[in-house]
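In this supplementary section we document a worked example of the pipeline. Step one takes a protein sequence of length 184 as its only input; no multiple sequence alignment statistics are reported here. Step two produces a three-dimensional model, which step three serialises into structure tokens for compact storage. The input and output of this example are shown verbatim.
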Amino acid sequence: MAFEKQEFEDKMEKTFHRLQEEYQTIRAGRANPHILDKLQVDYYGTPSPLQSVANISVPEARIILIQPWEASMIKEIEKVILASDLGLTPANDGKAIRLVFPELTEERRKSLVKEVKKKGEDAKVAVRNIRRDANDTIKKLGKSNEISEDEVKEQEEVVQKLTDSYIKKIDQAVENKSNEVMSI
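The serialised model returned by step three reads:
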């Protein structure tokens, strides 16, 4: 059993990538079609992503236009949007659904920034847990005399540098998303 730095780096990268995906679903006053990524509609008994049953576009800065390929899907799409936590009311003209994003109030922006920071903290905790797992693996290798004490210290330093770099990336992502949410 050898210590594979790459395995733990991949886990940290996945954690960071997941955080970025979560940030795409947080709306910041501008229409972003990614907020619909997690929505599933019932398409003839099969849960399907909204993108697979409709064309989604952003004709204006604060409007998302959803044009189902089948008119019968409009009611189903509306129902899913209303049941979601998006906080948007769909406007249906019989052919398409419009989601109009209201200007965010200062209070709503601040609560979104809190959510952004919480997701960032959760990602940092996940990265630190990965660091702990890596260090446990290194210590086991040291105890079983597969690597020397000096190698244990070296590998722990490598893992710490890796952890620090991901914490820095997460902090930067939190700051960027917070600024985006607070800008009008």
